[in-house]
Structures are given as C-alpha cells and as structure tokens.
C-alpha cells in the first residue's frame, strides 16, 4: 500500500460525493459535462492529433484493429497481450482483458491514477459508508483485474477476488472464511449463494449484481434469502457506466461519461459513450453492444442522472427474421409471464432461424406447455411462426461462460 494510492482514492471519492451534491438538476449536469468535454477535446487534439474529437466514432472491432491509435503511449494489442503474460506493460500503467467470448475479447490499458480514480468513484456510489466502517468486499467475476487490486492497494478496504470460472464449490469455503460485508457478482452466483445459504453462513450487508442481465426470478430469490435489497453495478471493459442508488434505480454515471443513444426500438437504445474522465485510453463515440431500457421518469432520490430500467441484453442477441427483429425483453417476458413457476429458461435462435426453448427438467408438463404457447404467441403478434423445439436446460456450463438466457447462436 502506498500513501499516495490511499490519497488518490480519497480525492476521487470526495470529488464524486461532491459532484453528487452539486449536480442536482439536469441543466447543472449538462453544464458540467460540457466543461469536462471541453477539456477532454483539448487533450485529444494534443495527444491524439490523428483523431478529431468531434467526429470520432469507434466500436470494439475498431479498437482491436488498431489498438495503438487509441492510447497515449501507442501501446499495441501485442504489447498488452505480452504485458498480461509478464505482468508489466508500461510504467504506472496496468492492462487487462475482458471476459467476453473468445475472439471477441477486449483489451484495455489504464494508468494507476485512473485506476484509483475509478475505485474512488465506485466506492462513493456503491459503498459511501466505506470511510467509517471497514469493508470486506468479495468480487466474484470471470476475470481478475488491476481495477479490483486497486482496492487492496488503497488501504481502504479488503478486496478478495474469486474466479467465477472455477465454479462455486472451489471457493465457497474461502468465501465463508472471508465473511464479506459486500459481494459483487453476477446474478447467477448470488442466486447460487442464496440457494446454498444454509451452507454458506455469510451475512453480507450489501449485494451488487454485475456483469450479466438481472432477471426478475433471480432478484426475488436473492433478496428473499439475504433479506437485502439487491443493488446493480453496470460496468464493462469500457469503464464504470452506472450504479444503483438507495432507491434501487440504476443511474448512469453521467458525471464521468457522456451517453448518446442509438434507438433500436421505441423502448430500447444502444449507448454510445464518450468517457471524458479517462485520458490514457480513448473511449469516444464508442458504440456498446448493450440494449438499455431507459426510464422516462426521474428517480425519487432526486438525482438528475438518467435511470436505466434495465440492461435488457446484448444487441447481437436480438433475433432476426429477415428484416423483422425481436428483442430479448420480448422473449424473456413471454416465457416468464407464462407461469409464476418458471424461474429459469433459455431461448436461443439457431443460425437457420429456428428457435430452441429450454426449461428446467423438473417443471410440470402443463407449465412447459404454457411457456411454449406464450412464446409462440409473442412471435405470432409479429406475424412470425418460426419452428420452436422444447429442450431441457443443461446446467453443466453455467459457470464456464457468461449466462445469456436469450441468445442468438453463432454456430
Ligand atoms: Zn435514484
């Protein structure tokens, strides 16, 4: 632990708390963004003369195709991959890789200064009491990251990382010994902990779902088992994008990231982000793969930050039938609304356009039938009648990869 790390986290924490107090109206927030964007534009002009900050558009493929063009020291993707192996990429710079599907994994580079800033901001939003109550935070995600290590380096809290890919049986006892006060994990892991609560003997005071879509049945099981409200953290390789407030609404981190939206349907939008708080790696006009259902109403907590009703799924999991699209929320609601007994499901579209509905093996025949009918009806309302086969959920791969209940298959 270095003293300066602790100080830097504290500075970012205080600034984030101060911004939350100061930016209480939408005009105040937008004025703040405009000032920050002005400084950021100047930085881009000076450090990235080959990019025009006003017209720059990028996505993950662009970034990976020419990684060096988007970071200050012109580190290439190979430099970063080498850095991941050796543990060193550049002085005061950390690197990482996203947990995406193979072939689609994003790399990132971040300075120590930015890592501590990231930590200060996330603490200010997710664990505001951290400065008076010592916290033990268990992070259960598919990929360890220099970002979580910043927690231990800060001396502010203890962070223990558990590798999701190992499966809970591998680390469940260690987790009990660690006795976390806060757990950050995908909903499927929190649900596993909830369903094994008698064995786990843990009593966290805060729970945050991250990394995967949170579905209603998971939320109910988790909240009932722990007697806690489940918070949400929306983050990606691309940065910290949102954290839920004390009223449970997921607010976008608009004090640090500018969000534009590309509307996919009249309800759902894909975010295009410009992270004006990061300097080392450019993230500008960056098109995400997520589909967000944005809330029209302001939150009762009083924050002017845009509320996301839910992260519905991924843009590339939209089902296509020629030019007709069906978004993941429609399919999920069709299945879950068919019967309250249904607490798990998968809907997949094969390359040939046919559909697989997977349900738990122990579901009653009548319930399975209703789910099937409800899904058929959802397609028929769009004048579609794809062939649907009913299969059983295989749980063997649950912890090996990202859970996508609605998925467009690639092979
Ligand atoms: Zn709120």
Question: Which keywords apply here?
Answer:
2 domains, 24% strand, Alpha-Beta Plaits, alpha/beta, Rossmann fold, 411 residues, binds zinc ion
Description:
The protein is α/β, with parallel strands linked by helices and 411 residues long. The protein has 12 helices and 20 strands. The strands form 4 sheets. Strands 3, 4, 5, 6, 7, 8, 9, 10, 11, 12, 13 and 14 form a 12-stranded mixed β-sheet that branches. Strands 19-18-17-20 form a 4-stranded mixed β-sheet, with helices on one face. Helix 5 (112-126) packs across helix 6 (146-154), helix 8 crosses helix 10 (216-226) and helix 11 (328-336) runs antiparallel to helix 12. The N and C termini lie far apart (47 Å). The model has no long low-confidence stretch (mean pLDDT 92). Bound molecules: zinc ion (ZN). Residues 245, 247, 249, 251, 299, 301, 303 line the site of zinc ion. The site of zinc ion (ZN) has 7 residues, from loops.
User: How many β strands by DSSP?
Assistant: 20
CATH architecture of the largest domain: 3-Layer(aba) Sandwich
Q: What is CATH's topology name of the largest domain? A: Rossmann fold
Q: Give the CA-based shape.
A: globular
User: How much helical structure, as a percent, in the residues?
Assistant: 25-40%
Q: Which CATH first-tier class of the largest domain would you pick?
A: Alpha Beta
Largest sheet descriptor: 12 strands, mixed
Which cofactor or ligand species appear?
Answer: zinc ion
Could you say which structural class the secondary elements and strand pairing correspond to?
alpha/beta
